[in-house]
Design goal:
By secondary structure, the chain is mostly helical. The chain contains 4 helices and no strands.
């Protein structure tokens, strides 16, 4: 009896197919579905306010630190100016949260029509 050497063997692996799909997905052009657009818009509302308020808070903390240094290190000459500088730093730091609220409110007003349009489409 002679064995046929012209046969084709194929093995299917679900794991390999999933891996192939994942690799292929990396190179496909990205299409944002409506839910992903809605999530990104919602996240973008607070991003700008957060960044600006962190910057304002950091600047205020640095000014406060400068005032403390003036009052403690150069106590004889710059004690009272150091106190004034420290109070100004506290004021700037205290403004960080109201700045965040203001910017977030403006961003919500700007993005609201688009978010409402997307939510209407998604709820249908």
């Amino acid at each position: 009896m002679e064995k046929n050497s012209d046969t084709f063997n194929y093995t299917y692996s679900a794991g390999e197919q999933e891996e192939i799909k994942k690799i292929r997905q990396k190179y496909m052009p990205k299409e944002l579905d409506k839910m992903e657009q809605l999530r990104r818009l919602d996240q973008s509302v607070t991003r700008k306010g957060t960044s600006v308020s962190i910057i304002v808070g950091t600047i205020g903390a640095l000014i406060l630190g400068l005032g403390m240094s003036c009052a403690m290190v150069w106590a004889g000459v710059l004690f009272f100016p150091g106190i004034v500088i420290g109070i100004i730093g506290m004021g700037v730091t205290a403004l960080a949260y109201p700045v965040y609220i203001h910017i977030t409110k403006k961003e919500r007003e700007r993005v609201a029509p688009e978010i409402l349009r997307l939510t209407e489409e998604l709820m249908k």
